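anyone else get weird line breaks when pasting these?? whatever heres mine. first is seq + tokens for prot A
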Amino acid sequence: MDKPIRILQMIGGLNVGGSQTVVLNTYKAIDRKKIQFDFIIDKPAENKLIPIVEDLGAAVYKLPAFNGTNIIEVCNAWDHFFCLHPEYKVMHSHIRSYASLFIPIAKRHGVKTVIHSHSTSNGPGCSGVLKSILQYPLRYQADFFLSCSDEAGEWLFGRKIVSSKRYHCLQNSIDPGLYCPDAYKRTTVRKKMDIDDKFVFIHVGRLHAAKNHNFLLRVFAEIRKEKENAVLLLVGDGELRDKIRKDITHLKLNQSVFMLGIRDDVPDLLRAADCFLFPSIWEGLPVTVIEAQAAGLPCVISANISDNAFITPLAHKVPIDQGVQKWITCLKNMNMERQDVSKQIRDAGFDVHETADWISRFYLSLYRGEEFC
């Protein structure tokens, strides 16, 4: 093969986020002499990762987002795209909300389609209902189905698809070597951030309703009553940024909660921390939970998260519906010593190099029209 095959990834935006991290980890790990990724995005303002993927060899295309009323515009744009780009034979969509509009168009152009479930909920309200209606046809439209956990697969595709040969659970994997505890880096980062004498809690995730930041801040407010040197690092950005700032002010936590925004040094921030908190209301299989464990951090994690994420003794499962005090009790009784669990991460199937090998064989078989085993 003289040139690499090119796989089209529909990703929505290219800021640092859960699905974006998973795709980027895989992209870095695959043999890019054989397989290259190109990206379609519909959120041009979410562009922090564009220079990174372009340096890896990707092209990035921008198409209009679906806003609930512009069906004709969206469908025409996708049809025009495939008319201009007949070279694409495989498309992998990480967007589910309106994928039922563009997947049939891709198939009419002879493109093999893969839909990927990264979550277990659309959230509340009219928006969630609309998404549920739009995404139901996907189980009848796509050629192949992937998910980060079987729970996420059943939620989006149904049990019949999950039990079929066209479905595969592809865990959100990482490079464990990037997260191994490192005392020198830990000390350096803590001094640079002026937190070397603090007990550091950390949360990594989009500023979104699913992440339950209000609950997180109430837990931390209780922690501060007994641990005055505690600080909380919030890594990520999103639509709830201003509301979370107001909550921080309301709880009088301005001097101890630091909103760091989108960062490209998450492994070092995890090394600098002492405990990871993750009280999500819903998730698929959050890659940040795997990263935190790989960094050797004691973790307190919502019981709503897939059991597949609890892969080391560092991860403590606590319900959120039993209130803040349940989390405080867990924190008081936890062993806060860091551990090197990189072998357990690999043994549990979260090594990105194994994932890259599987997805490479999968893409090549689709591209060549071969049956995948």
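and prot B, same format (seq, then tokens)
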Amino acid sequence: MEVSQYRFCIPFGLISCTFVLEIAYQNNLVYKIHYVQGGENFSFVLKDDFAKSVFREFAEYFMGKRKNFSFQIALCGDEENVQGTSFQKKVWKELLTIPYGSSISYKELACRIDNPKAIRAVGMACHTNPFSIVVPCHRVLASTGKLQGYAGGIDIKQALLNLEKTIKDTI
């Protein structure tokens, strides 16, 4: 399994975030995308052309030029190699149906997977999502509309939502 990292900055609205994303991949299939904590003293590592193309797509997304990613994630075809319960995988697949620039509540997500009482379990599945941003758990909010937990931090969640809303509103 190859691992590459790259630092991004999202300068939208009142919140400006800098963070490092790391991808784990093999044979042009992404198995994990996650935030690296403590990326302040980081120098990026792009191991090959595939990693460069993946991070180029992320850069396009952050510049508002891309709404969908074209690279393959293991969840969409090599599911047996993705760590997670069948419930978590069901939640992650449902997250893929939330349109760009939109949001839903944890409760609505639980209802969509025919398990309306599993609101907290849905929240935990979002928290353990192995495909940050691509599987858009940042689009899930509390029923009140309040931002709640995000693996990359609330500031990044807010910045991603601001970015998508800004781009969606200009179309």
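btw re prot B: The longest strand covers residues 15-26. The beta strands are 2-12, 15-26, 29-36, 72-73, 104-105, 140-141.
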